[in-house]
Structures are given as structure tokens and as C-alpha cells.
Amino acid sequence: MKYKTVVFDLDGTLLNTLGDLTDAVNHAVSHLGVKPSTEVQIRARVGNGAAKLLQRTLEANNTNGDIDECFKRFSEYYRGHMTCRTVPYGGIMHLLEKLKLAGIKTAILTNKFDLAAKEIAKHYFGELIEYTQGEKVDVPRKPAPDALFSIMEMFDSDKDSTLYIGDSTVDIQTAKNAGVKSVAVSWGYCDREHIKGADILVDRVYQLEDIIFGIDFKEIETNFTKRGFGFKIFDTKEQASDYIVSQCEGKSVGFGGSVTLDEMGIYENLKEKGIDAHWHWKNEPIYMNGDIYLTSANGLSKTGEIVNIDGTCNRVAATLYNAKRCIIVCGLNKLARDLEDAIDRAKNISAPLNAKRLNKKVPCVTTGQCEDCMSPERICKAMVILMNPPTNMECEIVLINDNLGY
Ligand code: SF4
């Protein structure tokens, strides 16, 4: 295993603390006549400690108040109510148990005040977390790397064997300042656009297990090939692109709508080589009659199924019939544990992100998860699960060791 030590942020990473934080902030400023904030409003203000959270709340309400007094009220209230509505995110307890069993050292590094951080960590995680450090007067706060360095020293871990996992730009910067690999989690308090700078961005807890324990690519290859799918894996999108271009020489090629393919610049590479390629995303008509159909998937199960959703449905239709060969190109971010997770990924990660990209008026754009809407703008009118390649069609997965598309 590559990592000896895994350090986590707390709020928004291991624990959903928004309910209790919101109650405590509202109590802390209530004597100033400030109207109660919602969890959505508090979510936008967290990340730099309680004093900053209170200051931002007063500013948002155009209210002057004594921050020290608010902080005192906040601390007193929060100490008595910090485990009322707080819960670990789904899958976190299982992950921590697995880390413990594997002998990987774990710590929490948070800008929450130290006493509260220690109490809350003990309450929820007990012995599963070996050390917790919160905000202390004599230690510079995150994103300063000092506390992270101390933890690494305590655990006899160097930069290469330490992983830092958090949900905010402060966390990413802390890891960068310490020279350790950063993982940003999208389920926390920061919007996705703000955490793109992390070395790796994950949407589900099981992806953390993949990063820490590694992926058994051989097993995945076996699961796809025994179903009749071709399977290739590449380290970089450039290597994958070279391979795909080599397969398309002398053939006619159609494209399905795909951010992955666009990010890889494959259409441009094919055109440069004079290959007969057609893509409706490049001011051409929809083309489904080529020798090869290139597309991506919304979810790829490690057990060998391919999940795609579609609104117009030309893309899913072309993966089912007509093309002689279909090449499905995916980054590792599309990989899910099993079919159920691949469907979850398609519905609750791909669809909301694509709906947002296309400016659709559907509820998942706001909530970030499928609300099973009946809107005419719904972008997931069909879901296709390929269990095996369709009759008379060769079908191949190209998996890339990178995050690509949605
Ligand atoms: S059904 Fe509606 S809410 Fe659900 S993912 Fe599709 S567009 Fe979004």
C-alpha cells in the first residue's frame, strides 16, 4: 500500500455537521435580532473556523456585533448540542474500519476549535481515529501546513506516504503547502467548481478506498471480457487518444455527446489525420451510420456493466444497433463498485452535472441529486444498461487512469 497515513478534514468530509452548526450560529447571534440562517446559507460560510463563520453571518445580515461575545455564545451552545443532528456520511465508518484493519494511521486535522474537535471525533469514531487536532492558539491554522507536518512526524510518515482528504479549498491548499497528495470530496460544503484544483476529486466514499488500497484492474478486465467486451486501460488520455485514432484509420466514425471525448480532443485528432469523423457537437448533423461509434458512459461497474442515460437518445440508440464497432471511453471517475452504484452514479452525479452544464430547468441542478422529475427538459429520458455487446456489434471499453467528463 502506498499510503501509511491518511489525514481527514472533519466538517463536510467525515461528518455532516451542518444541522448542529446552523443551530449554534443562530443561537449565537439571536440576541442581536439577526434572523435565523438556513443550512444552505451556513454551508456557504464555513471552512475557516467558527469566528469567521460568525463574522460572515453578521456581515450577511448587515449587523454589527461583538464577535468575541458571539463566539462565547456559540461555543457554549455548540458544546452542549454538537451531536444532536450531526451524522457521519454514508460509507465513512466502513472506510475507517478498513483503514484500521489494514494498519493505516488516521488523523483528523480541522479548523474547528480543538476541544470540540476532540470530543466530537471521540463520540463518533472512538478508536477508529488515532489523533485529532483542532484549532489551537499556538499553532497556525490551515492552510498553514504546520499541524499536518506534526501529524506526519508523529506517525513517522513522509510526503509520499501521506494522503490528505478534505472538502474545501483550504484543505487542498493545506495539502499543497505540505507537499502531500490532496483528495477533494464533492459531498461536503464547497461547490465542485472550487475544489477542482485537488489532485483527485471524488464523488463517493468508495472511491477513497480505490485511492488508498488500489484498484484490481485485472479483475475488472476479466469481468468485462467474460461478458464479451473488449477492454484496454491507459495511463494518460494522450495514450488512449493515440490508440483510438489508430483504430479509426480508414473508417467512418460517429460521435455520441461526451464531455470526456471533448476533453480528450479526439475529434480534432481524427480530423487532423483526414479521418471521416462526424460529431453533432461540432456543427454537424447527428451521425449514427459510421463503422465506429465513439462515446463515453455515465457509469461503469467493476462487475462489467455499462450504464448510460440520455435525453434525445441518439447516443444510447447508437450503442445498441447499427455500428460495427462501439468504443466506450471513460476516466476512472466513472468506475463504480457494482451495477447499483453505476446506476446511482448515472442518476445522481452525471445527470445533475450535465443538466447544470446544459442549463436545464430541472430540480437536480439545485439539489445535486436526482429528484425523479417529470420535466419536459429532463435529460435522462432513457437509461440503457449494456450487459453484453449487442449482437453484430463489437464493443470495447477504453479506461483511462484520470478523471474525465461527468
Ligand atoms: S429525472 Fe429530472 S431530476 Fe432526475 S436526474 Fe433526470 S433531469 Fe435530474
UniProtKB/TrEMBL annotation:
Residues 218-399 form the LUD domain. InterPro entries: HAD-like_hydrolase_sf, HAD-like_sf, HAD-SF_hydro_IA, HAD_2, HAD_sf, LUD_dom, PGP-like_dom2. GO terms for molecular function: phosphoglycolate phosphatase activity. The keyword Transferase does not apply. Keywords: Hydrolase. One of its GO terms (cellular component) is cytosol. One of its GO terms (biological process) is DNA repair. It comes from the Bacteria. This is HAD-IA family hydrolase. It comes from Candidatus Butyricicoccus avistercoris. The lineage of its organism: Bacteria, Bacillati, Bacillota, Clostridia, Eubacteriales.
